[in-house]
Write a structure and sequence with these properties.
The protein is an alpha+beta fold and 389 residues long. The chain is built from 11 helices and 12 strands. It has a 5-stranded mixed beta barrel. Strands 9-10-11-12 form a 4-stranded antiparallel β-sheet.
Amino acid sequence: MACNSCSTGKDGQPRGCKNNGTCGTDSCNKLTVFDWLSNMSLPTGEKPFHYVEVRFKNGRKNYYNNADGLTLSIGDIVATQAQAGHDVGMVTLTGELVRVQMKRKKVEVDGEETLKIYRKASQKDIDIWQKARDKEEPMKVKARQYAIDLRLQMKISDIEFQGDASKATFYYTAEERVDFRELIKVFAREFRTRIEMKQVGFRQEASRLGGIGSCGRELCCSTWLTDFRSVSTAAARYQQLSLNPQKLAGQCGKLKCCLNYELDAYMDALKDFPKTDVKLYTEKGTAVCQKTDIFKGHMWFAYEGEWMNWHTLTTSQANEIIALNKQKKKVPNLEDYAAELIENTKVEFENVVGQDSLTRFDRPKSNKKRKSNNRNRNKNRRKPQNNAK
């Protein structure tokens, strides 16, 4: 989804609106929301919802009360209330859909901590905001060096200035608790502004910075994913994935969030499977499960003592044998059940284009050419002797 000015240029290359985060329709930004109620009119006598959604740097969003009834639309730059001073952000959502979003995120309407919108940002507000944004990257380089000099086990991942440039929030990640009191003194002395330190998790850091995942697409956490559910190795086990940390971990160093996407489908499919630790008792011997195939619904069993010979059964056949075992009955063997699944997988290839046989390389080469070469060599050796005579 893109705005009208993001059309394609020559050779199908994207032209880009080059608005650098202030796109008029908010379609080129992270965690954007499509207002599917924008074309619907309100019933007569109903007033529009007095809250709007405002987005700040790296997808940070908040909901503000439009107490003065300003005419706002998506893409407007507004000055909002902050704990001290004011902040500058962009309107990303208006109307009834804001009510739905606030209810989903459990944000109280007209609560004690409700903030409001002051005004539409003037050109002076925007200039101060842009100058503050330009300082963030060089400040981050210096801040990381100061943290290294003080030997603090922490990483400064990002810096965000308030809209009026009166406060800078330093986002950092750390494995353990860090005493950064001395670091704050250094920051305040060097940067000449109010400092706020905010610790974020590794997943939140990846969502703020963004990147490309192993699938070749942008990270889900930086484009559309807003809630981070816990991911455990059990999700990988249910999906029969290799427990390799290098393959299962994302850019944040934690397990990939996409391991939960198809987990429900796998859990539903596994309901028909018996537990893998259940043994099958036959007259020939006791069989133990060796492998399962969730997509085909097959299970492989091997007799105790004959671990190299596997027999393929369907889930219904395995459940049938287990039901008989519960009645203290034994089936003769597993071969009778496995014989029903044997398929002829041999494929015969035909020479339809007049080419050589596909098995021509399987036959050993003849030694006729080698023998003829040896005869020619012997003749050449004899010729000089005859000339000498």
